[in-house]
Amino acid sequence: MKDKELTPQEKFILDSGSRARILDLFLRMYTGESVDTEWAAKYFNVKPRAIQRDYEIIKNVLEKYLPNKVMVLNREDRTRSLDIDEGVPVSGVIAVLKMIIGTRAFSKEELEDFKEDILSLVSYKERPMVKTLLAATLSKYYPVDVPDDLLMRIDKFSEWIVKRKPIHFEYRNGYPGKVSEFKGVPINLYFDTSFYYVMIYIVDKENLSENPLVFRVDRFVFPVKELRKSYNIPFDKKVDEGVVINKMFLLKMGNDVHYRFQYWSNPQTALNKLPGSEIEKSMPDGSVIIKGEIFSEGALLWIFSQGDQIKVLGPRSLKIMVKERLRKTLELYK
């Protein structure tokens, strides 16, 4: 720490006696600073012994009110600092952060904030090792196209789900520039393939083939309006999140393929069921071209569930698999 001209606040602390001095030392260490005893004695114009007594008081306070924090003596420079007593193991932190980075779900700014929050659970002396292990991965981090406020969105939807709060919202679907309006009650929130999804029971549209519907959290237009009116959700519409995740797992079998489909049914059905999909263009006959990335076996399961409403345009390997499955199916009816 370097000497500097004192601010009025610092002068007030120096003139306030030992209680203010102890609080000042504690807050410095609590916010990550290391305190040098000789510097502190000179700064507060007291003897080093007084600073040592302050340390003892801070230790007692920590033991009573913050048992997960301990004061440590840094052997190299003889400074005092606070550390975490039995913090989260480094292996656990690395595993969680590597997994989060691998999803590519957050912007670089939010990922950096998230990383710092998790690092705060690790001992100070172990943080440099964690940062070193993450450096190479973070330098090549390229997130999916998501807004910078994803955590805020997740927080809001979590609140609405818990409170069963109906909302009126605008949603950007796969059509470039197209925004749709809905009223509904968020039911649950889940993550799959780089994106967060929220399941919403729609209350303002009749004759929906599927209800509740699934929406990508990053495609909502914020702010979202909360509604005062309450709605009763039929019991059979309260979908179990575990069932949804198990169904999504079926789409994760086989080899990874980049697909193009021509689709004649409601485009939103495909966009909801195929994470990361998007509409490439609209066709004159009312169909759309949808592209994305999926595992081959999962693609086949979904393709055959759509009957004559879909045509595979590519890749060639997927078209061959579809034709072969159709051939085998026809064989069964001879």
Automatic annotation (TrEMBL):
What's the protein name? WYL domain-containing protein
